């Protein structure tokens, strides 16, 4: 029973639509009606600028970290943090508080990994910025950071980590279908500040 409550809590935590809250309360707009239409940090940066972008990205990461920490906070050693974290990622992507139109799973997945293997998160972030510097595509950098994460996880021999990061990366790629098409068509927007 308590397990079910933790999973629901993680989903609800992930469902908190930080991009929508910051956009509506701070600027009076729904960021899903602007830019790429995505309810995520990148589209917030693009639409509302650096302050709002950082705030939303930070909040989205935090949702994943907190969700993955729930088993520890409730003293439930038998519940795997990564399993609980998946529920937050699903909440972030299909949020009950925002008509199930959420983000692309990147920042919240990162937050889950930050809780479970901080070093993996830090090196993934570094890899993300290297790809971003070279390509200028946030979407491509997000997907390739996930691929990097899978390769890293293979060295850890941590089976749950290998399985979950493979699932999360596949889900991230699936959520970036439109971006992949735009990259191929050369219409994907590039970041200008790098
Ligand atoms: O985190 C999402 C990012 O990889 C792409 O976002 O708004 O460019 O589709 P966006």
From TrEMBL:
<keyword id="KW-0594">Phospholipid biosynthesis</keyword>
<dbReference type="InterPro" id="IPR003811">
    <property type="entry name" value="G3P_acylTferase_PlsY"/>
</dbReference>
<keyword id="KW-1133">Transmembrane helix</keyword>
<keyword id="KW-1208">Phospholipid metabolism</keyword>
<keyword id="KW-0444">Lipid biosynthesis</keyword>
<comment type="pathway">
    <text>Lipid metabolism; phospholipid metabolism.</text>
</comment>
<comment type="similarity">
    <text>Belongs to the PlsY family.</text>
</comment>
<feature type="transmembrane region" description="Helical">
    <location>
        <begin position="6"/>
        <end position="27"/>
    </location>
</feature>
<keyword id="KW-0012">Acyltransferase</keyword>
<keyword id="KW-1003">Cell membrane</keyword>
<dbReference type="GO" id="GO:0004366">
    <property type="term" value="F:glycerol-3-phosphate O-acyltransferase activity"/>
</dbReference>
<protein>
    <recommendedName>
        <fullName>Glycerol-3-phosphate acyltransferase</fullName>
        <ecNumber>2.3.1.275</ecNumber>
    </recommendedName>
</protein>
<keyword id="KW-0812">Transmembrane</keyword>
<keyword id="KW-0808">Transferase</keyword>
<feature type="transmembrane region" description="Helical">
    <location>
        <begin position="79"/>
        <end position="98"/>
    </location>
</feature>
<keyword id="KW-0472">Membrane</keyword>
<dbReference type="Pfam" id="PF02660">
    <property type="entry name" value="G3P_acyltransf"/>
</dbReference>
<feature type="transmembrane region" description="Helical">
    <location>
        <begin position="146"/>
        <end position="174"/>
    </location>
</feature>
<comment type="subunit">
    <text>Probably interacts with PlsX.</text>
</comment>
<comment type="function">
    <text>Catalyzes the transfer of an acyl group from acyl-phosphate (acyl-PO(4)) to glycerol-3-phosphate (G3P) to form lysophosphatidic acid (LPA). This enzyme utilizes acyl-phosphate as fatty acyl donor, but not acyl-CoA or acyl-ACP.</text>
</comment>
<keyword id="KW-0443">Lipid metabolism</keyword>
<feature type="transmembrane region" description="Helical">
    <location>
        <begin position="110"/>
        <end position="134"/>
    </location>
</feature>
């Amino acid at each position: 029973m308590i397990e079910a409550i933790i999973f629901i809590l993680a989903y609800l935590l992930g469902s908190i639509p930080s991009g929508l809250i910051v956009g509506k309360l701070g600027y009076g707009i729904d960021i899903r009606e602007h830019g790429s239409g995505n309810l995520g940090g990148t589209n917030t940066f693009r639409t509302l600028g650096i302050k709002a972008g950082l705030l939303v990205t930070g909040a989205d990461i935090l949702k994943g970290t907190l969700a993955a920490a729930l088993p520890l906070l409730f003293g439930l050693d038998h519940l795997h943090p990564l399993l609980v974290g998946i529920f937050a990622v699903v909440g972030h992507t299909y949020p009950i508080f925002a008509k199930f139109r959420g983000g692309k799973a990147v920042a919240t997945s990162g937050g889950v990994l930050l809780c479970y293997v901080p070093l993996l998160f830090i090196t993934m972030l570094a890899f993300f910025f290297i790809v971003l510097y070279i390509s200028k595509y946030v979407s491509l950098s997000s997907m390739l950071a996930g691929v990097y994460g899978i390769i890293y996880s293979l060295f850890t021999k941590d089976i749950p980590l290998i399985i979950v990061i493979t699932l999360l990366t596949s889900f991230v790629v699936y959520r970036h279908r439109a971006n992949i098409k735009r990259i191929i068509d050369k219409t994907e927007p590039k970041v200008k500040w790098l």
